[in-house]
Amino acid sequence: MSTIPTGPLEETGYRLTAPRRAVLEAIAGATRPFTIEELSDRLPNIGRATVFRTIKLLHELDIVCRVPLEDGGIRYERSRSGHHHHHLICSECGSVTEFNDPALDEVIEQNATTASFELDGHSAELYGRCASCQAAS
Ligand SMILES: [Zn+2]
Ligand SMILES: [Zn+2]
Ligand SMILES: [Zn+2]
């Protein structure tokens, strides 16, 4: 079973409480991007509000990332890199691949500056078909 580094949580002064540990273990065991409802269903002893708050915290710490789907649904997954990144999302198999591009981030930040927009953050999702789905068709 894979484990999630809890360093970022403890380094920032958050205690690894039992519910947080349970949520982290459920995330580590997830094989696909999940909704908060799906995760919550796997944790019957933990209130949904606690699951929701924990995911929000883990997202802020870049332990978990938010994956907005093309149909408007929101899923979450364990961040592979643990740093800011973007997503390539396959609309056939649902696989999510991370990529990171500092040059792209810079262009996005420049656009915000040009528009006198105070930027809090950004995300970028690319939708299409992954290499194995293309090969299978
Ligand atoms: Zn991600
Ligand atoms: Zn695919
Ligand atoms: Zn970015």
Strand portion: 15-25%
The total count of helices amounts to 6
Describe the strand arrangement of the main beta sheet, using strand numbers: 4-3-5
Class of secondary structure makeup: alpha+beta
What level of helicity do the residues show? 40-55%
Low-confidence stretches: none
Biggest pleated-sheet summary: 3 strands, mixed
Secondary structure: number of strands: 5
Distance between the ends: 33 Å
CATH topology of the largest domain: Arc Repressor Mutant, subunit A
Structure description:
The chain has 137 residues and is α+β, with helices and mostly antiparallel strands. It folds into two domains: 82 residues, Winged helix-like DNA-binding domain superfamily/Winged helix DNA-binding domain (Arc Repressor Mutant, subunit A, Orthogonal Bundle), CATH 1.10.10.10; 54 residues, Dna Ligase, domain 1 (2-Layer Sandwich). Strand 3 and strand 4 form a beta hairpin. The two termini are 33 Å apart. The structure holds zinc ion (ZN) (3 copies). The site of one zinc ion has 6 residues, from helix 5.
Write a brief caption for the model.
With 137 residues, this protein is an alpha+beta fold. It is 40% helix and 17% strand.
Layout: helices, strands, pairs:
Elements: H1 7-11, H2 18-29, H3 36-41, H4 48-60, E1 64-68, E2 74-78, E3 86-90, E4 96-99, H5 102-114, E5 125-128, H6 131-136
Parallel strand pairs: 3-5
Antiparallel strand pairs: 1-2, 3-4
Bound molecules: zinc ion (3 copies).
